[in-house]
Structure formats: C-alpha cells, structure tokens
Amino acid sequence: MRRRQVLAALAGLVLLPAAAPVPARRIVALDWGLAETLIAIGAPPVGVPETRTYADWVISPALPPGTADVGLRVEPNLEILQQLAPDLILAIAEHETIRPLLERIAPVLSLPIYGPQGTPYTVAQAATRRLGAVTGRTAEAEALIFRAEETMVSARARLAASGNARPVVIASFLDGRHVRIYARHGLFDAVLQRIGLANAWHGPTNAWGFATVGLEALAGMPEARLVLLEPLPRETARTFRDSPLWNNLPMVRDGRVLRLPPVLMFGTLPAAMRFCTLLTDALTGEGGHG
Question: Which residues contact 122 (CB under 8 A, 6 or more apart)?
C-alpha cells in the first residue's frame, strides 16, 4: 500500500467514533435501595435478595412479577446468581468481602449510599445518574431526580401553608422497650431538611443515620411530634396499653403521635419521595395515617 493510502487509512481510523458502551440489561441488585432506583428508571433487576421481605418493608416501587430471589442481602446464593447470568451485579460496601466471588459471575459495580461521602440524598442522586448511564436510561434517571426535587419543593410549600413547624422525631420500634431513631447521616433526616422540618433528635447516630435507644430517650424531646414507622412488633401493643413510661410521654399524652406505613429507611430517591409524601399527607391531614 502506498504511503498516501496508508495515511488515509490511519486518518479514517482516527475519525471513527468510539463504540458506545453496551447497556446492562440483566442486572442483579444486592441492595434494595439500588433495586428500587432501577425499577423507578424502567430498568428493573432480574434478581434481588429476600424478595418477600422487600414486599413488606419497601412496598413501593413493587418488584416486577418473576423477579428472582437471590438469597440473603449480605450472603447471596452464588449458585442462583450464576444461573441468572447477569451482565452486572450491583453491590454496596457490605459486599466487599465477597466481591472476588461475585466477580467470577459478572462485573460488580459498588454504589454505597450510606457513609462519610455525603448525605444519602445527594449520594442517591449521583447513584441514580450512574445507574442511568450503565442501563442506557440517562433521561429516565434525570427525570427521577427531577421528580424527587419537585416532591420536596411541593411538600415544603404545603407544610409552610399548614403551619406544621413543630420538630419531629422519626422512629421505629425494635421491641416493646427500644426504638430506632433516624437522624443525622440518614435519608429521612435529609428529607426533613429539604421540606423545612426540624429533627428533634440531636444525639449521635451511626453511619446509617440512626441511634438505638430506650423509650425513656423520647422523654427528652417533650415538644416534638413522634412519627412511628410501621411495621410494629407484636409486643408494642402491650407497651401502648400498659407501659406507664409510654403513656406519660408528653407526645403521647398530647396526641402528637403519627403512624406511617413502611418506608425503606436505607433507601434511595424513591424511598425519599415515599417518605416525604406520606409524612406531608399525615401532617396536613390528607393521608389518613395520623
């Protein structure tokens, strides 16, 4: 080949556009928060851990029919994963110890939402964009981010108009005497900040944004409104009926206790939107969960 032909051929190679990455179609999400994001952008996973428990704790968005159960969240069933033949496995920091095993099955993308890297809400925004990119659904990812922001802005306006400025404490019962309080570093606290509500709990929390305390800790927030997340353990029925400590809490005596349906406390933008809507509806008298 003559020199001119060689140069022309090289020039043609340089001008060729880079091949676009192939979108992942068969994804296993080992974290429920990442799973709910995939569903929300129209790229549902083929496999998720503990699907029955997901249905009890996440509620919405629901898993599509036929979603495979891949075992436990921390210890997925490797045989089932291999049978699913995924293009990609989504993981979080808790899966790093088994990452070499997962990588024998498919590429692994770790997208931890909770930790020192920022608030769960902003990290979830970044994770949504990343998932949009790997699934070829960037427009849908941006639409989800926009819907979440719209939900927060609307809730803030509704709460301001209703005069609901009282601080709140967000909690779930672990048993009849202990609660988990959600505050700093958590998704619910990030939502409260966005909608203009103060979190009454100023004590320490862990990296997941919660503190485990006894019922007596609630007495230290006498002006707060208590927001309880379902499901409630069976023994709470006895607590509500017979516990002097519970029944003498100012928030209980004054009727400042709300109960909300389950929301994924360690979720992403869909969970943030669900929590925001349920809480705002309850506080403005529109949800029927007060």
Answer: 190
Predicted TM-score (pTM) of the model is 0.89
Q: What is the pLDDT of residue 20?
A: 54
Contact status, residue 259 vs residue 235, Cβ threshold 8 Å:
no
Cα 113 to Cα 284: distance, rounded to the nearest angstrom: 30
- CB atoms < 10 A from the CB of 246, how many? 18
With both helix axes pointing from N to C terminus, report the angle between 138-162 and 187-195 in degrees, rounded to the nearest 10.
60
Kindly tell me if the per-residue pLDDT of 287 is higher than 60: no
What are the percentages of helix, strand and coil residues in the chain, rounded to 5?
45, 15, 40
Per-residue DSSP letter, 44: -
Confidence of residue 22 (pLDDT cuts 50, 70, 90): confident
pLDDT over 50 (residue 247): yes
Q: Among 7-11, 66-70, 88-92, whose mean pLDDT is lowest?
A: 7-11
50 phi, psi to nearest 5 deg = 45, 60
The span from the CA of 173 to the CA of 246, in Å, is 12
Tell me how far apart the alpha carbons of residues 198 and 56 are, in angstroms, rounded to a whole number.
28
Distance in angstroms (rounded) separating the CA atoms of residues 96 and 82:
18
Q: Which residue has the tokens 């992942």?
A: 24
Euclidean distance between CA atoms 268 and 255, whole angstroms: 31
In this prediction, residue 6 has a pLDDT band, given cuts at 50, 70 and 90, of very low
| Pair type for strands 27-29 and 88-91 | parallel
